[in-house]
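Pipeline run #58 for the internal structure catalog. This entry was flagged by the ingest filter as a single-chain record with no existing model, so it goes straight to prediction. Upstream metadata was stripped on purpose; only the residue string is passed forward. Reviewer on rotation: M.T. Logging verbosity set to normal.
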Amino acid sequence: MYLRNGVRAIIFEERKLLAVKNRDVDGVYYILPGGAQKPGETLVETVQREVREETGADAEVGPLRHVREYIGRHHEFADRHADVHGVIFFFDCRLTSPPDASRQTEPDSAQVGVEWLELDRLASYDLWPKALVPLLADPEARGPVYLGDVN
């Protein structure tokens, strides 16, 4: 098992949430833009890099909103993530340039697009982590900062 830090960007605009659309053997699912921190990189630098890589947009990083642990062997993807233990930091962000596929520098291997998800329909999307969906449905709501080991 290894431990890694990761980040995700929470970006709201006009009652919509920016998400990365992915496809795997189970079908289409969504995640927030983000990924793993590199050695020597601050969390803020990681958010900015990951948003640019996956969406082609530039982001201003705001306050930390949530922290989630993910111990893979405890969840439904244990067969694929048995050796994963991650601590993921979710930051409120604001775009300073729009998403642009031509400016993406390193999309994830499962990534098939970027979409704005309607907040009124957020629960209908296969958005991960599921534990975050009710907390994101209202941009003004503030839930717990530390979410624990959730998926």
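catalog note: The chain has a mean pLDDT of 93.
catalog note: Residues 2-137 form a domain with the Nucleoside Triphosphate Pyrophosphohydrolase fold (CATH 3.90.79.10).
status: ready for reviewer M.T.
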